[in-house]
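User: Please fill in residues for this 458-position structure.
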């Protein structure tokens, strides 16, 4: 675990499972391949050295035999004929060279001495600080006492030009096989992640194909079963909520009729107030259920500025001052009535719990638009900014003890935003107040909305 942590700090450790597995397998295979290749080269070098020593010993033995049979005055003329690429013969004493020192090279000298026979005493000297066993001077005497020095020079082992090409081809093959293996292993996880991300607010998505390897098929089967159970549970919960909310309207209506017959005006007004609160709660519950499961509107091309401008004008005409800041003139593909419900919910929330509401719209990215609904008021405690998006959650004091609330307005807006593939973020404003920022894609929430007719929502 220490190496990955160091690589993470150096930003060399990938964050994805695909990248990590690819990195580990590729470099592991490259290390194993390099070790095998190095062992083969080492064994090849040792074999060539052995053959070279054997051939060199035979060559020196033949050359010495030739010089023994040639008259002494003709030996100098024979030396160029005996010279090889890796050996050179010098008759007579060789002047002392400080660069050469007495060396003990048992493998080379023993092999050459064995080839020459017991009547020749072979000694060797080598350059200082050398590790090449073939960079030597061999010293011996002919039968008549003439000194003979054999100067040996190292020869580089030949390397075929196709070897680097083969190594590169092998590395490319390793990279491709690693990529293919990791892709096959991680593709099922990627499909599982995409299936989980594609679940909408109703948690019903396309089932995963239950094929492939046994482990992948089992994971897909378990995911599909889990998806069905969660969707059925939520559907049952929503049906219960809708049924209760719907059935409560009948006793509320009967209680309202009975309240009309009460003589006590004070008690009648209090009862009306309680019935109105219950009626609002029932209506909000039904609206929440519809917001989760009732988004059936088809996407279409929408003039966002016209939609927001008409909405602001409606509020101004109703005596609720609201202003629009900025504009977005590019048509976007969305569900205009669903978007209008979201903005109305946010504006109603701003008017209920704050003052001076406003809508600001601007382009967030090349393919997204941002709509912010702001107000001036008490805001929401920082620790509860996410909790208020949950159904029936009410801030302590409901931001205003006199008006209260059902705790479903922001939850409905959140569910509808998810249906539009958008995000909803809450933050407190400097100087007091709340900002609810809606971020939406400019493309279609669904694939079938791309060819719809341009519509100016109002």
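Assistant: Residues filled in for all 458 positions:
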């Amino acid at each position: 675990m220490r190496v990955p942590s160091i690589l993470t700090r150096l930003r060399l450790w990938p964050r994805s499972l695909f990248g990590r597995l690819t990195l580990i397998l590729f470099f592991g295979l490259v290390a194993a391949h390099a070790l095998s290749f190095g062992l083969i080269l080492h064994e090849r070098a040792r074999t060539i050295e052995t053959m070279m020593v054997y051939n060199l010993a035979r060559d020196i033995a033949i050359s010495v035999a030739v010089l023994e049979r040639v008259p002494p005055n003709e030996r100098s003329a024979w030396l160029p004929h005996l010279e090889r690429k890796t050996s050179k013969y010098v008759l007579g004493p060789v002047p002392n060279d400080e660069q050469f020192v007495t060396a003990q090279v048992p493998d080379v000298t023993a092999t050459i001495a064995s080839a020459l026979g017991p009547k020749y005493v072979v000694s060797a000297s080598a350059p200082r600080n050398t590790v090449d066993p073939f960079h030597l001077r061999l010293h011996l005497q002919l039968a008549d006492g003439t000194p003979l020095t054999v100067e040996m020079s190292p020869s580089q082992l030949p390397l075929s030009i196709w070897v680097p090409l083969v190594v590169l081809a092998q590395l490319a093959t390793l990279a491709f096989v690693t990529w293919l293996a990791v892709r096959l292993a991680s593709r099922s996880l990627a499909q599982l992640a995409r299936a989980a991300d594609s679940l909408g607010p109703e948690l019903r998505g396309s089932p995963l194909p239950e094929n492939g390897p046994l482990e992948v098929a089992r994971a897909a089967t378990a995911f599909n079963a889990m998806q069905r159970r969660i969707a059925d549970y939520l559907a049952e919960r929503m049906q219960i909520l809708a049924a209760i909310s719907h059935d409560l309207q009948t006793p509320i209506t009967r209680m309202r009729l009975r309240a009309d017959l009460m003589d006590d005006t004070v008690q009648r007004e209090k009862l009306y107030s309680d019935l109105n609160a219950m009626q609002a709660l029932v209506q909000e519950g039904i609206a929440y259920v519809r917001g989760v499961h009732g988004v059936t509107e088809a996407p279409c091309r929408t003039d966002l500025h016209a939609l927001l401008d008409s909405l602001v004008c409606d509020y101004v005409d109703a005596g609720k001052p609201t202003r629009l800041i900025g504009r977005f003139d590019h048509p976007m593909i969305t569900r205009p009535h669903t978007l209008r419900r979201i903005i109305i919910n946010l504006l109603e929330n701003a008017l209920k719990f704050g003052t001076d509401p406003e809508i600001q719209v601007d382009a967030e990215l090349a393919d997204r638009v941002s709509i912010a609904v702001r107000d001036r008021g008490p805001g929401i405690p920082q620790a509860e900014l996410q909790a208020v998006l949950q159904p029936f959650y009410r801030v302590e004091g409901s931001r205003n003890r006199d008006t209260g609330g059902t705790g479903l307005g922001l939850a409905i807006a959140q569910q509808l935003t998810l249906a539009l593939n958008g995000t909803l973020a809450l933050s407190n404003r400097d100087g007091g107040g709340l900002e609810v920022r809606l971020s939406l894609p400019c493309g279609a929430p669904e694939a079938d909305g791309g060819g719809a007719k341009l519509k100016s929502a109002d």
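For context: DSSP finds ten helices and 13 strands in the chain.
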